[in-house]
Amino acid sequence: MLFHLPKFPAEIRVTHLNARVNEQRKKIAQCTASKLEFLQLTQQLAKEARARKKNNQKIFVIDFKGDIQASAVENLREEITLFLATAKAGRDRVVVRLESPGGMVHGYGLAAAQLVRLRDAGFHLTICVDKVAASGGYMMACIANEIISAPFAVMGSIGVVAQVPNFNRLLKEHHVDFELYTAGEYKRTVTMFGENTSEGKAKFEQELQQTHALFKHFVEKYRPKLNVEKVATGEHWYGQDALDLNLVDQLKTSDEYLLGLLPQHDLYVISTRRKPTLGEKLGLQAAQLSDQLIPAVMDKIMNHVSKTNGSLVQFRDTQF
Q: Using the 8-state DSSP alphabet, how is residue 149 labeled?
């Protein structure tokens, strides 16, 4: 079997959550409880350990924090490949702590496809959302067997959006010609610099509607009880409203959910980190140096401004 290999060596870190939490509980008890209470806690922890051994079910916890490109998918695919190679489907479970406002269609399409691998292999998948799972983030969340949402987490936003600035009139004012050559009627529907035609705009809108339809069908496949047409308006919902609409299954924080699993299950938090290259290490050092220098420079500038009656020339940048 061939596994995807990262571009650079990846570090896999495994933390036994039960051991970490129990160690903290014992440290607190040593300082605050009586000897008898500490003994009772020790006996309770030993009893829970025996129950976990008898239960023999492992729960693997991973985190996905999404940006607009869904760049965390590189770590996600490594972690899921690890699960499929080592965990036992039908017995072991996976919990994903998800946070994402959505982003690029192809990036989140790949991220969702990675979670589908778990479902197809027979793993029970729970997704916990403490802050936001919107748009592409909800496309990932809907794959879960159950979605656990914090009371004020943002859920939904099942829609598609595209923004294309156009500078054609500005170029014309400065007597700049823009020429675009394509082969294929719809190779380029709209452009930033050319004059967009009504046909091109209509085709672009059609493509957006097609993408939206794919999104809705995907959600409907994994959450058949959800009235997709009712919620696929691009709107988002919080807490009880999301629960009432069947966007989520329970209202809990991920902490509350995982702590409830600790007595009967062994929980392992898996994290993957790509080792930084030498160039990235040097860049990080430069960034840290700039963080130290910028405040000092700004103090000097503001002192100068105060001495010149507050006059300061501001340079504005253009953002796309």
A: E
Q: Is 306 a catalytic site residue?
A: no
Q: What residues contact residue 60 under an 8 Å CB cut-off, 6+ apart?
A: 83, 87, 92, 93, 94, 95, 267, 268, 270
The C-alpha R_g of the chain, in whole angstroms, comes to 26
Report the C-alpha dihedral over residues 192, 197, 203, 205, rounded to 10 degrees. Answer: 70
Query: How far apart (Å, rounded) are the C-alpha atoms in residues 304 and 26?
Result: 56
Q: How many CB atoms lie within 10 A of CB 212?
A: 16
Q: Which residues of 124-149 are buried (b: 16+ CB within 10 A; e: fewer)?
A: bbbbbbbbbbbbbbbbbbbbbeebbb
- Mean pLDDT for the stretch of residues 238-251: 96
Q: Alpha carbon 19 to chain centroid distance?
A: 27
From the candidates 135, 149, 157, 254, give the one annotated as an active-site residue. Answer: 135
Mean pLDDT is lowest, of 35-44, 200-209, 225-234, 297-306, for 297-306
CA-to-CA dists, residue 117 to 45, 72, 120, 140, 176, angstroms: 35, 16, 5, 12, 51
Distance (Å, whole) CA 237 – CA 241: 6
Q: What is the mean pLDDT of residues 295-316?
A: 44
240 contact partners, CB below 8 Å, separation of at least 6: 151, 251
Length of the chain: 320
Residues in CB range of 170: below 8 A, 6 or more apart: none
Closest CA to 110 of 136, 133, 138: 136
Half-sphere exposure of 130 (CA within 13 A, CB side): 11
Claim: this prediction has a pTM higher than 0.70:
yes
User: DSSP string covering 164-224, please?
Assistant: ----HHHHHHTT-------SSTTS-S--SSS---HHHHHHHHHHHHHHHHHHHHHHHHH-T
- Residue 60 forms beta bridges with which residues? 94, 268
Task: Please pick, among 7, 35, 187, 225, the residue that the annotation labels catalytic.
Answer: 187
* DSSP for 217-246, written as a single string: HHHHHH-TTS-HHHHTTS-EEEHHHHHHTT
Please indicate whether residue 135 is annotated as part of the active site: yes
